[in-house]
């Protein structure tokens, strides 16, 4: 049974905090402009958006609507197909979340007047499986983002994946996974980024989807600005160097 389009034209539900949309190919789903309208009509109250919707194209209207949200804290996108333009627009929209002010003085407000920003972003099975997405544009930082989960980022080049991670300097937890057809992250470049202090607050790291070597894992531990509380990795990379780093570090691990 298809959800009537009238449901997506609702407005002024001042207590609507969450939207969760699941697409069923047998029943159909809302056209992208309808979903965009629903989000934009409740941009002042939405805190959580979760979309599991297999668009052939994500549509920039939804991307722009996400960017208008004032209090959005969590965004989850699953099985969404994105062009480079849409992916770039999405990252800009995530950075724009909460950039309005209580006094409605616009996006150039000083930080103390801003409402806040997106803190949790989950992207699973998204991207473009048939083309290479190269994030060569200069993009605004996701300075409020604390928790990032990425699984199967299709079509994005390795350098672009690192550029995306570099947009998130205040990450506290990172979960990164990929399928066998995706290229592995350039581990040495990632380790160099971490050693330079790019993610000083990172305390939870799940790279169980990557084939990192023992040397790289030990560098993660030895050079992390903050002590890891949670570390998940494939056993194939956990060797003597990593073991020695774990037992010799004067740090506390709650979960390994």
UniProtKB/TrEMBL annotation:
Domain of life, per lineage: Eukaryota
InterPro entries named in the record: LRR_dom_sf
Gene3D superfamilies, A to Z: Ribonuclease Inhibitor
Protein name: F-box domain protein
Organismal lineage: Eukaryota, Fungi, Fungi incertae sedis, Mucoromycota, Mortierellomycotina
């Amino acid at each position: 049974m298809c959800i009537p389009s009238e449901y997506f034209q609702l407005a002024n539900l001042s207590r609507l905090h969450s939207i969760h949309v699941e697409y069923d190919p047998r029943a159909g789903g809302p056209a992208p402009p309808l979903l965009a309208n629903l989000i934009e009509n409740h941009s002042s109250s939405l805190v959580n958006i979760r979309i599991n919707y297999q668009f052939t194209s994500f549509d920039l209207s939804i991307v722009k609507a996400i960017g208008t949200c004032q209090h959005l804290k969590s965004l989850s996108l699953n099985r969404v197909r994105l062009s480079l333009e849409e992916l770039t627009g999405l990252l800009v929209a995530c950075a724009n979340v909460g950039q309005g002010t209580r006094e409605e003085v616009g996006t150039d407000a000083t930080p103390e007047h801003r409402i806040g920003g997106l803190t949790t972003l989950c992207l699973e099975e998204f991207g473009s499986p048939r083309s290479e997405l190269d994030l060569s544009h200069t993009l605004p930082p996701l300075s409020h983002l604390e928790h990032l989960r990425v699984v199967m980022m299709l079509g994005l080049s390795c350098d672009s994946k690192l550029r995306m991670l570099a947009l998130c300097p205040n990450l506290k937890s990172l979960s990164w996974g990929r399928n066998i057809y995706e290229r592995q992250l350039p581990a040495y470049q990632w380790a160099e980024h971490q050693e330079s202090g790019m993610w000083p607050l990172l305390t939870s790291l799940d790279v169980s989807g990557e084939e990192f070597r023992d040397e790289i894992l030990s560098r993660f531990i030895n050079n992390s600005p903050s002590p890891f509380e949670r570390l998940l990795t494939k056993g194939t990379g956990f060797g003597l160097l990593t073991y020695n780093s774990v037992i010799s570090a004067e740090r506390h691990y709650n979960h390994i």
